[in-house]
Amino acid sequence: MLTRVIAALALVPLFIFILIGGVPLYIAEIAILAMALREFYKAFNAKNIHPIENIGYIFIAYIGLKNILNLSIDYICIIHVFYNLSFKM
């Protein structure tokens, strides 16, 4: 029961950001994505697999800026660029 209460309390700030919306929500999104991506990379590094971490963080920054500045996005173009970058490194 204590675990459920702690998990619920941890989600309260996220719920507040969702209610507020706008830039605070996008900043919270960037922070959560960066933490999740770091854990993802740590799991790969533990298995002795070394992905190109910079590409993931650049994509998070791009998604955050896209949301904050309300820009349109062309995912096909971005995927093509990252695909080409990943094989040149």
Write the layout of secondary structure elements.
Elements: H1 2-20, H2 22-46, H3 53-69, H4 75-88
Short description:
The chain starts with a helix and ends with a helix.
Write structural notes for this entry.
This protein has helices at 2-20, 22-46, 53-69, 75-88. The chain is mainly alpha-helical. Helix 1 (2-20) packs across helix 2 and helix 2 (22-46) packs antiparallel against helix 3 (53-69). The chain is flat, with a radius of gyration of 16 Å. The mean pLDDT is 82.
The N- and C-terminal alpha carbons lie at a distance of: 48 Å
Report the sheet with the most strands, covering strand number, pairing sense and barrel closure: none
Helix content: over 70%
- Written as H for each helix and E for each strand, in order along the chain, the element string is HHHH
Using the alpha-carbon principal axes, give the shape.
flat
Defining traits:
single chain; 89 residues; 84% helix; 0% strand
